[in-house]
TrEMBL record:
Domain of life: Bacteria
Name the record gives this protein: Alkaline phosphatase
Organism: Nitrosococcus oceani C-27
One Pfam assignment: PglZ
Length: 664
């Protein structure tokens, strides 16, 4: 076999059985490439978790087709061991063939408790390494070492110098390489055993990206001070500025290290400092980490960011995680350009954006459906977020969780307000990522998916409004063992006294789960006449007013695990004409129109070349969106608007942030 997927795909030949029941305790069936291949063969995958929800989809979408004598290839996935397939309803067991797949069968020589912690995207490399390096069965530590070496390219026993250690940590954390905790602990164990780094805070900076960047951030001024002739930093002053133990001076100027350093400053992972006494050449790599009096700092950073993003543009074959990593860089660049006044930069951004979103639209048409059923460990889509929170609550037992949904906040707008939040509260840690919104990127679709923890397919009666949001939120948590009295929900937030709002909405000693909707950004957007630049300016002013920061601080102070996301982003676009269709469209937005039948949608689509007939992926069967592509809109020709509902990167990939307090 050339891939671990072949062992599974061999059992999936179209038209063999209309129903297949699969025990999949390790979430192999929903791995992105495997799910894509199964869809390409005509198989539909649905997960059996809630019996009532499953019965609704099964009866309405599949049983009715079979009753008409038509064939489908349906796969029902149960994330339990094969012995528990018998817990499925009797009528399914009578009709369906039964299969079972697990990691132990695919990797028989490796320790199961170790490999089951791996991201499924890494199984390709692991399978190839196992095939090329046959061996006897390995124990836990030997399996960890095997994976570190062959999957992540890390040989801990060979890391013996500060340069080698720093280079490894930069490669991991800058590259967003997420070592499972079980592997990072093993790496720390081996490094400590060698005795080469006795003062380094390895337990903190190896597994934790934020701790690592804080560690090198506080050593950057020390490094610059050493560049001043005759300057010596006293040990006492070092104790005052260094919160993390370890060497005070790091080899930032080593050729293997400095290739990372300027990018870290350019991308906003490190913050430049004021150091006027240090003379820096115009072309020096150090310049990115020093705030100068010249007005060219932002322009230099924009120029460098353009170079970075243009070299790392994803393709139509990229993984969803590649798009998320790219979107975070793109957001930094967009925020800088929109907050600036250079017309050439804006023209270049628009040109790159048009090509980027053409590729993204092609990618979505093929890959988007494979994201829906991914495990929620690292939420790939917004409806995975409450499932992740439920896991955190279950694992922590007595903890409390809060979810803030900032309606309409785009990823680049988050990049604009992040430094304001940090400036107001230096103790704030922000663990940043991003996730995919539901398409069409409408509040009634994507925000309801967040609060229900389900695809829109499961709330057809309310898909055009948000009036059932609170009910869906509380139903989700009741399904995870909480009482309605443990769950709070509040919407319409954004102004006024944040503490007063929360005092009336929650009882910190009783309320275990809080869902909050901050809709200020969405209100700003719908009244915006000054494009993306105006959006950034007004959102920045609103954030400086303090409501969002105080809201986050209040929840952290009362012991909540705080997450923030958005239901959709927004984009500046130009009108290309409005369809003349009377009451044909059930939703008539500037970036999306929704029709009750595919035929009605096709009639309108034929007149608008920029529109995409979006397949009803995860949507009710009578819901047919026509979405605007690129920076076009269903609006008066040449009218400039800021809108949402379409399929651009700016609308679809939204921020996902976990807030914490510094312990140092």
């Amino acid at each position: 076999m050339s891939s671990w997927r072949d062992a599974i795909l061999n059992d999936f030949v179209p038209n063999v059985s209309k129903l297949t029941l699969v025990a999949d305790p390790d979430c192999l069936m929903t791995e992105e490439k495997l799910a894509l291949e199964l869809r390409g063969r005509g198989f539909d995958l649905i997960e059996f978790s809630d019996p009532v929800e499953f019965r609704y989809v099964y009866e309405s979408k599949y049983r009715s087709i079979w009753d008409r004598g038509e064939h489908t290839d349906l796969v029902v996935v149960l994330r339990l061991q094969d012995a528990e397939l018998e817990s499925l309803p009797y009528d399914l067991l009578q009709v369906g063939r039964k299969l079972s797949f697990n990691l132990g069968e695919l990797f028989p020589y490796l320790s199961y408790p170790v490999i089951e912690k791996l991201d499924r995207a890494l199984l390709d490399v692991l399978f190839e390494a196992q095939r090329k390096t046959p061996s006897d069965r390995l124990g836990d530590n030997a399996t960890k070492d095997f994976i570190l070496r062959h999957v992540f390219g890390i040989a801990p026993e060979l890391i013996v110098s500060e340069v080698e250690l720093l280079r490894l940590l930069l490669r991991l954390h800058y590259g967003k390489v997420q070592l499972p905790r079980i592997l990072s602990d093993r790496l720390v164990q081996v490094l400590k055993g060698q005795g080469a780094f006795p003062t380094w805070p390895l337990d903190e900076i190896v597994p934790d990206e934020e701790a690592f960047f804080a560690f090198i951030q506080e050593r950057w001024p020390v490094f610059l001070s050493k560049l001043e002739p005759g300057n010596e930093v006293r040990e006492r002053s070092l104790e005052e500025i260094l919160n993390y133990p370890g060497p005070s001076v790091l080899p930032f100027d080593h050729q293997d290290i400095r290739v990372y350093m300027d990018n870290l400053f350019i991308e906003g992972k490190l913050t430049p400092i004021q150091k006027p006494e240090v003379a820096i050449d115009a072309g020096s790599w150090i310049r990115c980490g020093v705030i100068e009096a010249s007005a060219g700092d932002d322009e230099m950073r924009i120029s460098r960011l353009f170079g970075l993003v243009e070299k790392s543009l994803p393709t139509s074959e990229s993984r969803y995680s590649d798009w998320i990593t790219f979107a975070l860089k793109w957001a930094e660049l967009s925020a800088l350009v929109h907050c600036g006044s250079n017309r050439e930069d804006k023209a270049r951004l628009l040109q790159t954006d048009n090509a980027l979103n053409a590729t993204f639209a092609r990618w979505l048409s093929v890959h988007y459906a494979s994201l829906i059923n991914l495990p929620p460990n690292n939420p790939a889509m917004v409806h995975h977020v409450p499932r992740r929170l439920a896991r955190d609550l279950e694992n922590a037992k007595n903890s409390r969780v809060a979810l803030l949904v900032v309606d309409g906040l785009a990823l680049d707008q988050w990049a604009t307000i992040r430094p304001i939040l940090q400036e107001r509260d230096r103790s704030l840690i922000m663990r940043e990522s991003a996730t995919f919104a539901w398409i069409p990127t409408l509040t009634s679709v994507s925000r309801q998916a967040i609060f229900s923890g389900k695809p829109p397919l499961y709330f057809p009666s309310s898909i055009k409004s948000t009036h059932k949001e609170e009910k869906l939120w509380k139903q989700f948590w009741e399904g995870h063992g909480l009482s309605r009295l443990d769950v709070a929900y509040q919407r319409g937030l954004g102004d006024g006294d944040a503490a007063g709002v929360l005092d009336s909405a929650i009882h910190p000693g009783k309320t275990k789960v809080v869902g909050l909707v901050v809709d200020k950004v969405d209100k700003i957007m719908h009244g915006m006449q000054l494009g993306s630049a105006g959006m950034h300016n007004q959102i920045k002013q609103w954030c400086r007013g303090g409501f969002l920061g105080l809201l986050i601080g209040y929840l952290l102070d009362h012991g909540y695990e705080v997450w923030m996301t958005s239901d959709h982003g927004n984009i500046e676009c130009q009108g290309k004409g409005r369809p003349s269709e009377g009451v044909t469209a059930e939703t008539r937005g500037e970036r999306v129109r929704v029709y009750p039948t595919a035929e009605l949608r096709a009639q309108v689509a034929s007149k608008f070349s920029f529109a995409h007939e979006w397949l009803p992926v995860g949507l009710p069967s009578d819901y047919f969106p026509l979405v605007a592509g690129g920076s076009n809109a269903f609006a008066t020709p040449d009218e400039a608007i800021v809108g949402h509902g379409g399929i651009t990167l700016e609308e679809v990939i939204v921020p996902l942030v976990k807030f914490e307090r510094k312990t140092r």
